[in-house]
Amino acid sequence: MKIYTRHGDKGKTQIIGSTMVDKDDTRVEAYGTVDELNSWIGYTAANLNQATANLQSELEEIQQLLFDVGRDLATPATDQKHDYVFTTAIADQQTKWLEDRIDAYVAATPTINRFILPGGSPQAAALHVARTITRRAERCIVALQGQAAINPNTLVFINRLSDYFFAAARYANVQNGETDIFYRNGNPVFKN
């Protein structure tokens, strides 16, 4: 199998089912953003330290699931040869797994009642970037959903995933001995 197909030379790409679409197609934007997220998670996992090493297996599992999500986003609902792989049963189970991890990380971190700035330890900062890429992926999926039928399980999972990354980022800060910085809400420190 060759890596290059030369379809991209004309601004086209092939989605599942052999249909050719423009590279800026909403469907390509949705699964492409999920792919970007998956790559960022790989980068984040590669930069975990001893304090956050317990996140490694979770991040790898999320990467596996994101391949399923991306595959389903690349599959038109009209394709008769390819079924969605991210079934309701799998999505329900994996969304519940994320919720359990979120609850565990919330329980392990100080209670907050204000917005926090993304950052802290390098691992937490990377997880906050994953959160924002996830939110962008969610917006892309919603845009695609407005134009074509999609597997609705993908949106539910992606929505919960951004919450996971927020909770995991806060947990990474606790594990690294970092304190979250609260948004000061319009009270500038530097004044003329």
Automatic annotation (TrEMBL):
Residues 3-172 form the Cobalamin adenosyltransferase-like domain. It catalyses: 2 cob(II)alamin + reduced [electron-transfer flavoprotein] + 2 ATP = 2 adenosylcob(III)alamin + 2 triphosphate + oxidized [electron-transfer flavoprotein] + 3 H(+); 2 cob(II)yrinate a,c diamide + reduced [electron-transfer flavoprotein] + 2 ATP = 2 adenosylcob(III)yrinate a,c-diamide + 2 triphosphate + oxidized [electron-transfer flavoprotein] + 3 H(+). Its EC number is 2.5.1.17. Gene3D superfamilies: Cobalamin adenosyltransferase-like (1.20.1200.10). One of its GO terms (biological process) is cobalamin biosynthetic process. GO terms for molecular function: ATP binding; corrinoid adenosyltransferase activity. InterPro entries: CblAdoTrfase-like, CblAdoTrfase-like_sf, PduO-typ. Keywords: ATP-binding, Cobalamin biosynthesis, Nucleotide-binding, Transferase. Pathway: Cofactor biosynthesis; adenosylcobalamin biosynthesis; adenosylcobalamin from cob(II)yrinate a,c-diamide: step 2/7. It comes from the Bacteria. It holds the Pfam family Cob_adeno_trans. Homotrimer. NCBIfam families: PduO_Nterm. Belongs to the Cob(I)alamin adenosyltransferase family. This is Corrinoid adenosyltransferase. It comes from Secundilactobacillus odoratitofui DSM 19909 = JCM 15043.
